[in-house]
Amino acid sequence: QESGERVATLINLDSYPAPGRGYSAQRREALDDQELLAKVMKRSAGDSSLLPVGPLTVRGVAAAMRRGDGPLANLGEGELSRLIGLIRHHEKLRHNFTPRSFSGRMVLFIAARGVTDVSAKAASWRPYIDGVIEYHPVPHDHEDLFDPAPLAQLGPAIAAELARAGSAGGADGTGHAAEALEPVQLRPSRPQDSNR
Questions:
Q1: Rounded distance, CA 138 to CA 150, Å?
Q2: What's residue 185's pLDDT?
Q3: What pTM was estimated for this model as a whole?
Q4: d(CA 39, CA 46)
Q5: What residues are paired with 109 via a beta bridge?
Q6: Rg for the chain (alpha carbons), in Å?
Q7: Are 91 and 31 in contact (CB under 8 A)?
Q8: Would you call 30 helix, strand, or coil by DSSP?
Q9: Is 96 exposed, middle or buried, given 0-12, 13-18 or 19+ CB atoms closer than 10 A?
Q10: Residues whose CB falls within 8 Å of the CB of residue 159, separated by 6 or more in sequence, listed in order
């Protein structure tokens, strides 16, 4: 938009503006190696029984992942160390990033496993979106959004949004978005709304 292009719809997969600005030493300490290694291990193996006993180390987690058949089973110690560093770097980028304003419609897919009210997550985008924020709760964790079950919901919904955007709002014929994920809309507040 800033360079004059038309953007029909902004599609967002469970991403939010950082609640506080800046990447503090306190935040960096909160992301300790034990927590990060446990998350990587859980994501890769899906089986906490493979976790080594005692304090986690890169060597122990890499060996445990090799015993499983998860997507990261072939990572060596050096690659796992770099992955942990990359996770920290992405967290730093996220906390130092301030979104720009967008005029138009945002479609937000919210990872909502075990959560009944996700409206606050959608509302976190209100300062940056001048338009409708349509959100779809997806009953899965963020880390699982690209697994087969969530993709079976997300794929048709995103395809329908892309078809809608490509035809300037025309019918896409699939009907998947509304049926599969039940959208909710947050409309921008207007000055006249405050008088009601």
A1: 7
A2: 65
A3: 0.68
A4: 10
A5: 13, 136
A6: 20
A7: yes
A8: helix
A9: exposed
A10: 172, 174, 176
133-152, pLDDT tens digit by residue? 999 999 998 888 888 889 99
DSSP strand pairing (133-138 vs 129-130): unpaired
Q: Which amino acid is at 3?
A: S
What's the pLDDT score for residue 121?
A: 92
Gap between the Cα atoms of 12 and 71, Å rounded? 24
Name the strand (E) or helix (H) holding 24: none
> How far is 112 from 27, CA to CA, in rounded Å?
24
Residue that has been written with the tokens 């038309």 in this structure: 6
Nearest to 40 by CA among 5, 71, 15: 71
Tokens 């992405």 correspond to: 90
* DSSP secondary structure letters along 81-140: HHHHHHHHHHHHHHHH--PPPEESEEEEEEE-TT-S--HHHHHTTGGGEES-EEEEEESS
Per-residue pLDDT of 6-24, as tens digits, reads 888 899 999 998 765 544 5
